[in-house]
Amino acid sequence: MRHMSILALCLGGTALLSGCGGGSDAQVQRAIKDVNVIDASNLNDLMLTVGDPNESVAYFRGALQKDPTRVDLMRGLAKSLSRAGKPTEAAGVWEKVTATADGTMEDRVMLADAYIRSNQWDKAKQVLNSIPPTHESYDRYRLEAMVADSEKNWKKADSFYEIAAGMTAKPAGVLNNWGFSKLTRRDHAGAERLFTEALKYDPSAFTAKNNLVMARAAQRKYDLPVVEMTQTERAELLYTMALAAIKQGDVSVGKGLLQQAVDTHPQHFEAAARSLAALDANVRP
């Protein structure tokens, strides 16, 4: 404990350090610099996970103005831009990262992600094809699945979705994407199974709940699934089911579901009430 106290005092400043074992000024500066680097790294990590993403963008832009060659700061800016809903700008930064000597295969994966977010599918495919098969990661396979989906290569998409789901402890998101892929193929039973599985991992995911209701309604299953939901969510899911029923020609069922949605919502449910009024006026909502 006495040694730890002396070490703390030695790190306290140049004056104290000069009296601790005869350390040189150069050693003192290196020690201070190392501590500052650790502090900066912690701050960088913090800015990536909390707060307003636009504040994070401003932070990393400011840091890069002071040190424009720092690849870790470029990565932070690119991730922050994606969080702020600016994928095209993020892609531009990832392009710079991947062009540096310190660029990694995972940086290329993130570049492909930014391309997909900015609807540049051909570029995303080119980047993914440039990554050797030996580089295996959850994000890589998740993106490979999405590209295969965009090309309607269902067999390949299913293979990549399955691999990705097995590579993460939190597969709810990729299972939801896979389920939506099945939904677009009109494999409604397969979609229902995947949305149900996604909700086992994340019971709070409303998108998966809504998608599950659509998959069930497409099979004319007009009862709510047994999943966790708030009263507001119940009303919104009833509304989704009602619209699906009406679209399929089950107008009377849809009307009843709309009424349930209006009655269930803890506040005034304007969209459902308006659709119900339109039905009563013999106008398709």
Automatic annotation (TrEMBL):
Gene3D superfamilies: Tetratricopeptide repeat domain (1.25.40.10). PROSITE patterns: PROKAR_LIPOPROTEIN (PS51257). InterPro entries: TPR-like_helical_dom_sf (IPR011990), TPR_rpt (IPR019734). This is Tetratricopeptide repeat protein.
